[in-house]
Design a protein that fits this description.
Rossmann fold; single chain; four-stranded mixed β-sheet; seven-stranded mixed β-sheet; Four Helix Bundle (Hemerythrin (Met), subunit A); globular
Length: 354
Amino acid sequence: MIIRTIEWSPDTPAHLTPGSVVMVDQTLLPGELTYLRIRDVQSVWRAIQTLQVRGAPAIGIAAAMGVTVAIQALPETTTGELTSAALQAADYLATSRPTAVNLFWALDRMRGVIRASGALPPHEFKNRLARESMTIRDEDAAMCRAIGRHGAELLRDGDTVLTHCNAGGLATAEYGTALAPIYVATSQNKHIHVYADETRPLLQGARLTAWELMQAGVDVTLICDNMAAHVMKTKTINAVMVGADRIAANGDTANKIGTYGLAVLAKAHGIPFYVLAPSSTFDLSLDSGARIPIEERAAEEITMGFGKRTAPEGVKTYSPAFDVTPGGLITAIVCEKGILAPPFQTTLQSLLLI
Ligand code: MRU
């Protein structure tokens, strides 16, 4: 079953109903597979902030569609007014989450289209933005397929992969990044077993990765994050595969908190550590990961997870949502263009020329 995480639903032919964003509400999984239909930019912002839609590529697509939805119901008086509203929406959506660069990449791409479309009549302008956000979605789906094909070359029949957070179909348009090679390898009749870290505090591994792998018939075993070292020592793990939220020019990679620890553990156990991400996740304007902004989340996410108090009221907390894995701990970065080996300083730059 292929789950389409987020889509643009165009307006009706007679323009009676404006276009809308349709997305899986990921906060309800694994209990319910429910789709939200969103018709205003504030709700898109909230969906990104509250992780109803999450995962770097998916929030980029959501942001692009958020810009589009912001102008759908506006009167078609002048394109100038629509242009200002769309640019304002882009600036607003940029405040929703700070770490995944895909969000800013998608908004920049929409800004480019907005500025280049000023001569279009208002209705055409609206359609142009809708088409661009659908293209961003479709390109993401194609990039994930390609990542899957390249990444599957790293997997043999019988391999066991450990993954963290959710870098599957739910984190992208469809298919995923870190999980894509597992889907491709499975379709090639390779048996792949996956250990999924539960991924405290919001349990993307338990709620989302375990769910989507089971839906796809992949052999998955759920573990708590603090079991990874023991599992690496006592079981055979052939590879760690994770996604990314932002990759700097030297290969330093921001991903869900806990990823850095896994990379250290993988090194200690001689296990290859692969990062899988589309080129929309590269931020070559940053020379190193030290400059990647790290989101801090509300204390309640670790003291009152899912509504149950698990820490004393008033306790001090620190809750970074991401960490940065040094490029030196990464065996290879797999993107839609192929498998990049160290030194990433050189291989990532040369990617720009392809
Ligand atoms: O806070 P989240 O759930 O948005 O964090 C997501 C991750 O860290 C993913 O691993 C990353 O975005 C890659 S998704 C293909």
